[in-house]
Each structure stands twice: as C-alpha cells, then as structure tokens.
Write a structure and sequence with these properties.
- This protein is mainly β.
- It is built from 2 helices and 14 strands, in the order ααββββββββββββββ.
Length: about 190
C-alpha cells in the first residue's frame, strides 16, 4: 500500500514539474529562424526572355540576420548563390536590399556600433535569362542561401539552406504573363 501511494505521489509530482514553464526557453536552430520562399516573375518563362526570381526571407520575431554588407568584417553576410542549370544564365548581380542599422544588448561596447541587419521580412532578387536552347517544360533552379541568425542574447552557428525554384519554360512568350506584382513591381 505504501509503495502504491509513493508511486502515485511521484507520478503526480512528475506531471506537475513537466507542466511548469521552462526557465530556459528552447533556442531554435538557425534553420528554424529563417523561412525562405521563392517566386518567379513570369509564367511561363519564354525561351530568350529575361525574368527574375524573388527569394522572400521570413525571419522569426526576436531574431535578425546580418545584411549583405555587414557592419564589421568578422560578421557573416547574408549570401544567395544560384547554381544555374543548362539553358539559364545570369542577367546581372543578385539584388540585396539595404539593411537596417540596429543596436542590440550584445553590441553595447565602448564603441556602441550599430549592426546592419535584416529583420521580419526581406526580398532578394535574382535576374536571369532563359537562353534560346533552354529545356522546355518544368525546370528547377537550385539556390543556396547562407546566413547567420542572432537574437538579442545569442548568435547561432551559420547555416546554408537549399532553395529550389520551379520554373516552367515555354518556346515563345505568347502565353507568358507577369506573376507576383507585389514582388516584381516593374514587370
């Protein structure tokens, strides 16, 4: 009887302890801080035409990533690279927006240097051309996104994410139309 009562009391105490909020909130991995989504400016993309990819980075509240041009050499910049398959070529430099200068608790040094960062949502644009011999139909353009995420208290290890962009290629522009005007306003 005493053993059964002790087991019951122990079980109740374990349930109560498990239900208590943790004193140390779980720190996410760097992969969990940024959610990238990719979009194409034309559908379908015609052979011989120029188009853009937009990679929208949604950054978890309470976190930031360094901008493309960080405030100091030792900081890891946000970097997007395209591994272009046959039939596609670059039509210019990848466009990174200007970051925002912010001061965080960990930057309170004698110099108090603000950091150039991205927060909330940021859009990176990749200008491309579908060459005249681009394969027709469904294609994929692989991208690699590298960044380092930080909160007000801690910086996480840098991560590299694969971003796959599906693109449909057509022989002509007859059925091609602009897509996502909120991301590609000058199309």
């Amino acid at each position: 009887m005493k053993l059964a009562a002790a087991i019951a009391v122990t079980a109740v105490l374990l349930i109560i302890v498990a239900a208590l909020p943790s004193a140390h909130p779980q720190i996410p991995s760097g992969r969990e801080v940024v959610s990238p989504s990719a979009y194409v400016s034309l559908e379908p993309v015609a052979r011989g035409s120029s188009f853009q990819l937009a990679v929208v980075l949604k950054i978890r509240p309470g976190f930031h990533i360094n901008a493309r041009k960080p405030s100091a050499d030792y900081l890891i910049p946000t970097d997007l690279r395209a591994n272009l398959p046959a039939g596609f070529k670059s039509a210019g430099e990848i466009s990174y927006p200007k970051g925002e200068l912010r001061t965080f608790a960990f930057t309170k040094t004698p110099l108090n240097v603000p950091l150039n960062v991205y927060q909330d949502k940021v859009v990176l644009r990749v200008p491309l051309t579908a060459q005249s011999d681009a394969p027709l139909g469904a294609q994929h353009i692989p991208l690699k996104l590298r960044y380092q995420a930080c909160s007000n208290e801690v910086c996480l290890p840098p991560v590299t994410l694969d971003v796959d962009v599906p693109v449909t290629v057509a022989a002509s522009a007859a059925n091609s139309h602009p897509m996502h005007p909120e991301l590609f306003p000058t199309q």
